[in-house]
Amino acid sequence: MSTAPKAPLDPARDELCINTIRTLAMDAVQKANSGHPGTPMALAPVGYTVWSQFLRYHPKHPDWPNRDRFVLSVGHASMLLYSLLHLAGVVEIDEHGTASGKPAVSLHDIEQFRQLDSKTPGHPEYRMTTGVETTTGPLGQGCANSVGMAMAERWLGERFNRPGATLFDYKVYNLCGDGDMMEGVSSEAASIAGHLKLANLCWIYDNNTITIEGHTELAFDEDVATRFKGYGWNTLHVSDANDTQALAKALATFRETTNAPTLIVVDSVIGYGSPNKHNTSAAHGEPLGADEIKLTKKAYGWPEDSSFLVPEEARTHLHDTLLARSGGEYDAWQRTFAGLKEAEPVLADEFERMRAGEMPEHWADAQQVFEADAKGQATRAAGGKVLNAFAQQIPWLIGGSADLSPSTKTNLTFEGAGSYSAKGYSGRNLHFGIREHAMGSIANGLALSYVRPYASTFLVFSDYMKPPIRLASIMELPVIFVFTHDSIGVGEDGPTHQPIEHLTQLRATPGLLTLRPGDANETTQAWKVALAQTNRPSCIILSRQPMPTLDRSVFGSADGVAKGGYVLADASKGAPEVILIATGSEVGLAVQAYEKLKAEGVAARVVSLPCWELFEEQDKAYREQVLPSAVTARVAIEQAGPMGWDRYVGANGAKVVMNSFGASAPIEKLQAKFGFTVENVVKLAHEQIKGA
What pLDDT sits at residue 216? Predict the structure, then answer.
């Protein structure tokens, strides 16, 4: 907690800064002819109070690991954050991680609000604008991200703090609204935060009672504070967002709370200061209009004809206040870290690698190698062994499942792994409960806080996780999503648990690697690929049913997974007559069909294609080598929907895929019903050769 003295209160100066934030929001939205001015206007006192009196933040070092985090879950109010970053004089950190000397958000950037390639997009974008801690906009995501950030602080503190030498004790402030409170992901995240007693977390709830359709009484009248008390939160109420003294008192109470997260309910009037106080345009994400802006500025005592005015006192005060409060703490932190480097150089090196997004040296040497085995094992089982081997080499690899670790095999079982809980935050096994949506969003928050997270559930339940997977891709976060029970191989559980369209959905997500390994050794390589990523997430898709472990002295090396696709088995002489292409649990079926074709004298090739994205990144020569265009007789085999396979088999190629939902029956019955048999694949291969 900061011990630096607060700047002396000066109501006139504070009001000047608050009105600067309000008018910048109005002017930026008006010039863009697009955006949401009302919420930044109403919440300007809230954001300003947090930043001016409480936030531990060094504007010249916005990447300081122990800075407090300010999350704007109400991402439509982005001009509030951009104005704060501008007034704070935050310095830009470039793509190489060094201070560029330029402002993170200049006045010119604010004037370019919502314009192409500007640093002030419509919703805050991580990596695009220094000072934006996470990409927000889809309501509820910032709330759950903030829980991940708070969980990370507790874990980092347990690992790196020493008596008298604290490296991590930051706080997380999350500004949220009625929309966040209605989205289910926020409830999931709040529930787990209360369970974990994350006293470093504060949500400030803008209770303005307005949504796009009108007053919240149309659909929302619950007692939010009572709900959060039920989650185990400490709840406070500020009846007027303009009462900065009451806000400061509530925030001070949060800082003193040690046994629970805090919710501060703040009543506000959207578009505050506008003569038309519940302004329809402000609420609905439209400019106020020139006439109303003039009237509003007059109400503020502001020059009516001014545009993007930043008075000199407002320009310097917030920056100077942050420096006065946090400069000494930043210097002390640097000395503390220097002491750690001297006393425990291995531990210090660990954090430097975490911060740089690097792995320990020789981490990949721990990769598992599996002996050939006709009976084989489920790739989920192999995946558990691979994960545990790598995790022992990567101390900051932590994660868990949505109550399914015994089934997804993602428990870390080695000595010292432990469980993360309110009784001790050092454990590396996270227990998310049956909260898939929040799990994915919390994982993103963890990834934004130096640790390397993985999260697991059944593939069919990736439906609950589409928003955080998408946002992980947008933010370029190397989160690893582990999805087991990959197909109709789930059998008796039936259509509700048998994923069909899910692979297509994941493959359609830009920047996401979807890896579906075909045996135990491909599983090793899939984990190796995923862990090697620095700026994109990965999904590893694993089976419940056993799959043969192929003899790699006979078949192609599983190292080919790194290229996304490779020749697994080939014709003994000359070009193949037909190519069988498969992923995951269908690779073994393709090999069986290949062996039968080979016995019949047919020259066949098997291509394992575990990751389409990586395969498409290979040069044309390699892709032609694996899938020669001259060979048009092709059969695709995958227990999933057909979309996308034309790319690899052509318009006339055969596809053994799912064109409907599954059914409840033993796996053998299902495979026969839907054509996943050696006989059907061989038949289609002959038809392809005949028609080529």
Answer: 80
Which residues does 125 contact at the CB level (< 8 Å), separation at least 6? 132, 135, 474
**H or E stretch covering 470:** helix 466-475
Q: Which CATH class is domain 16-331?
A: alpha beta
Residue 587 to residues 89, 379, 469, 575, Cα–Cα distance (Å): 56, 12, 26, 21
DSSP of 130-146? TT--S---STTHHHHHH
Mind listing the pLDDT tens digit for each residue in 134-190? 999 999 999 999 999 999 999 999 999 999 999 999 999 999 999 999 999 999 999
**How far is it, in rounded angstroms, from Cα 430 to Cα 455?**
9
Euclidean distance between CA atoms 295 and 278, whole angstroms: 15
- Give the Cβ contact number of residue 12 at 10 Å: 7
Please tell me the predicted confidence (pLDDT) of residue 418.
97
Domain boundaries, the chain: 16-331, 363-548, 561-691
Share of the chain above pLDDT 90, in %: 93
Question: Contact, 388 vs 364, CB < 8 A?
Answer: no
Q: What is the pLDDT of residue 280?
A: 45
Helices (H) and strands (E) in the chain, counts: 25, 22
Which phi-psi region, left, alpha or beta, contains residue 357 (left: φ > 0; alpha: ψ -120 to 50)? left
Task: Mark whether 436 is an active-site residue.
Answer: yes
- CB-CB contact of 133 with 126 (8 Å): yes
The enclosing H or E element of 175 equals: strand 172-177
Provide the pLDDT confidence category of residue 336 given band limits of 50, 70 and 90.
Answer: very high
Residue type at 545? Q
Contacts 24+ apart (CB under 8 A), 221-225: 224/181, 224/263, 224/265, 225/263, 225/265
* pLDDT tens, residue by residue, 340-396: 999 999 999 999 999 999 999 999 999 999 999 999 999 999 999 999 999 999 999
Q: What is the DSSP letter of 53?
A: I
Tens digits of per-residue pLDDT, 261-277? Answer: 999 999 998 767 666 65
Contact 182, 205 (CB under 8 A): no
The amino acid present at 506, given as its one-letter code, is L
Q: What is the pTM of this model?
A: 0.96
Q: Which token pair is 244?
A: 């900065």
- The pLDDT score that the predictor gives to residue 584 is 97
Question: Top-level CATH class of 561-691?
Answer: alpha beta
pLDDT of residue 211: 78
H or E stretch covering 532: helix 520-532
Domain 16-331 matches domain 561-691 at the CATH topology level: yes
CA distance 550 to 507: 26
**Cβ–Cβ < 8 Å for 172, 156:** no
Alpha helices in 600-631, H assignment, sequence order: 612-617, 620-626
Q: Give the helix ranges, DSSP H, for 211-366.
A: 224-231, 244-256, 280-284, 290-300, 312-343, 345-356
Separation between Cα atoms, residue 429 and residue 489, nearest integer Å: 28
User: Is CATH 3.40.50.970 the classification given to domain 363-548?
Assistant: yes
Task: Point out the catalytic residue in the list 133, 188, 436, 522.
Answer: 436
